Inverse folding.
């Protein structure tokens, strides 16, 4: 006999983490190759002047409001992406113990580092 | 000229006789235009009549003859000996499903999921709670409106995507590729008004969020349905739904 009762459906909060994962993945996919190109190839080859990347220039960039927000986004989003992937990879590997704790540790770490970077940037601003 | 032969290993399991599945080897005459299903029929007719497998249409429409060919989910009628000869072929029942007998699997869980998602058009109701009468004429649709769901309507419920899905393999609570693709098929149909009911299934942890976009379902699909794409589209819908739900709780 089929049950006549309406099944209860529990909405997942995954859209929040999937959104951060997607945004972070997009950034990583598009910007990482560019950053590797600049810092790993163009600067060592002398095509871009090294002087543009000294501590003072980078510091003055990071202490503007737009520079600070770019740095924050570039650190935080790929981090959320990475830890979301690690959290799901643990499931894929069949590690069933302590799913709650795995979640708290994964997203907690991403959250903590995001807050840390945010505070750090506020201090130097 | 001597007749070429091909070796076929088949995973056998007869619940009343065997404690566990075992492999039986068959050698059959090789023919370039012979499908795996025809090879199985040859075996049943000439070598061992006790072997069990499902089949019906022989032309990739009924979705009955799904099995694992060398570990890859395939339709027996759509896979040919010529793509494997002279190497041998290993046939096993579809992965991720319990074995009923030989190459026949128990599909009850998949069928239950198909029923649950209401795979039929739920028509719009007017103010009196009535649906459009037949005498009011047909529901019309533009080619664009049809294009939105047509691809997802090609599913033949063969279950190859469930055999391919590692997430379904890990946890059968996951709604799975075909059922989710069918949700997309009906939710994207302009004649359907059942989206809200189906989105409840979509937005669960066991709904679209059980998918990690491995994409193997779309690779093995014999009808080009691309369930992985359907699930990604539903993830976007579910996220929109989540945002709206934050501001407008039911």
């Amino acid at each position: 006999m089929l049950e006549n009762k309406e099944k209860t459906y529990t909405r997942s909060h995954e859209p929040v983490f999937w959104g951060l994962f997607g945004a972070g993945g997009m950034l990583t996919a598009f910007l990482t190759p560019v950053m590797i190109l600049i810092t790993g190839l163009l600067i060592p080859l002398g095509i871009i002047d090294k002087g543009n990347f000294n501590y003072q220039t980078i510091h003055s960039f990071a202490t503007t409001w737009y520079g600070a927000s770019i740095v924050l986004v570039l650190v935080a989003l790929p981090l959320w992406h990475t830890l979301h992937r690690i959290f799901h990879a643990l499931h894929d590997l069949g590690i069933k113990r302590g799913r709650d704790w795995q979640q708290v540790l994964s997203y907690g770490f991403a959250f903590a580092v995001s807050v840390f970077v945010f505070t750090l940037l506020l201090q130097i601003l | 000229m001597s007749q070429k032969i091909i070796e076929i290993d088949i995973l056998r399991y007869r619940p009343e006789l065997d404690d566990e599945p075992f492999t039986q080897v068959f050698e059959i005459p090789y023919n370039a235009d012979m499908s795996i299903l025809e090879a199985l029929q040859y075996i049943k007719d000439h070598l061992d009549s006790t072997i069990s497998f499902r089949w019906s249409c022989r032309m990739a429409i009924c979705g009955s003859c799904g099995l694992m060919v060398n570990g890859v989910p395939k339709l027996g009628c759509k896979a040919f000996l010529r793509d494997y000869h002279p190497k041998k072929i290993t046939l096993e029942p579809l992965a991720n499903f319990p074995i009923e007998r030989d190459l026949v699997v128990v599909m009850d869980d998949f069928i239950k999921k198909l029923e649950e998602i209401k795979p039929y058009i739920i028509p719009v109701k007017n103010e009196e709670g009535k649906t459009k009468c037949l005498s009011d004429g047909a529901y019309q649709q533009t080619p664009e409106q049809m294009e939105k769901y047509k691809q997802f309507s090609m599913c033949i419920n063969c279950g190859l995507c469930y055999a391919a899905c590692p997430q379904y393999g890990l946890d059968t609570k996951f709604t799975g590729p075909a059922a989710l693709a069918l949700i997309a098929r009906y939710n994207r149909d302009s004649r359907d008004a059942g989206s809200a009911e189906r989105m409840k299934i979509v937005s669960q942890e066991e709904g679209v969020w059980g998918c990690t976009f491995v994409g193997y379902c779309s690779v093995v699909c014999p009808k080009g349905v691309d369930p992985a794409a359907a699930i990604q589209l539903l993830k976007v819908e579910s996220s929109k739904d989540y945002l709206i739900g934050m501001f407008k709780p039911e």
Observations:
- The two ends of chain A are 67 Å apart (CA to CA).
